[in-house]
Amino acid sequence: LLKGPERENKHKMKRIVNFGETLFELDYGENGPDKIAKLMFQHGEDEASYEYGEESDGTQRLIELLDVILNDDDERVFIIDELDRSLHPQMTIKFVETFLKFSEHRNTQLIITTHESNLMDLKILRRDEIWLAERDSDNTTSLYTLDKFKIRYDKVVSRDYLSGRYGAVPIFKDFDYVWGRDGDWKD
What we know:
about 25% strand; alpha+beta; 8 strands; extended; about 190 residues; disordered N terminus
């Protein structure tokens, strides 16, 4: 079982748990669970109900991440690897913007890894909040902040990043070994 959002109200607490393809909400009282409800989802005006396991990978991913936004702890650090996994690029950006909005007056932090270059927007994040990882020739990884480049705040950072201006781009020479220079597969 995976622990989800919790809400305490004196002796009451709610917890969302994922059991296989189904989500349940557990209401706890002083003496343990008082109520268990299976969570179902509806879409727009469609009257049908869907289980968690019937949702798309992106919707499931977003549901898994809701605790990051809805969490009401004042001092918490969230670390998410591959935030953009199964999410539309605009949803990834909206998620980060929503987190920043909800955590504005809290001492909380979100640390993510992503390949979503559109998050490299200086209207969303500061230069010192964007870090790049570059694989070195000895297969170690160097981390450095975008602040190192002293970029103007009106710059379109993602375009320059994708063109290789800031480094941290994939090394493609390894593919030459596997496929050969002419594109044929090597045995």
